[in-house]
Amino acid sequence: MSDFLAKLHIYKSMGDYEAAAKFFNHYSEVDEEMLKVRQIVLLNKLPRRLELQPNLFLDSTTSNIVYKDYPDTFEGLIRSHVERFPDSF
Fold it and tell me: What are the structural domain ranges in the chain?
């Protein structure tokens, strides 16, 4: 990848549009094999991972730390954020 980007940068620095376009277009062509690969990737695509953070709270009555986990849903994500930053809403 670094060789590819270096060559492309050299063409750009020299202002050689024709050679750069030919070089780039050669590697960006989509043929039947790549369309099949794309279809396989799309069929096996996993849902986007949620970056969900649990919270720790201090129980004022017992001075214990309470761990609170949230469900892996958008509602859990929002609830975690709201409970972590109560003053920002």
Answer: 2-43, 55-88
For residue 69, the SS3 value is: coil
- Compute CA distances 71 → 11, 29, 32, 53, 82, whole Å: 51, 43, 42, 10, 14
- Sign, CA dihedral 81-83-85-86, equals positive
Q: Is 22 helix (H, G, I), strand (E, B) or coil?
A: helix
| Cα separation, 34 vs 30, whole angstroms | 6
Q: Which residues of the chain have pLDDT under 50?
A: none
Q: What is the pLDDT of residue 52?
A: 87
φ, ψ at 65 (rounded to 5°): -90, 130
Determine the Cα–Cα distance for residues 28 and 8; give it in Å rounded to an integer: 13
**pTM as predicted:** 0.46
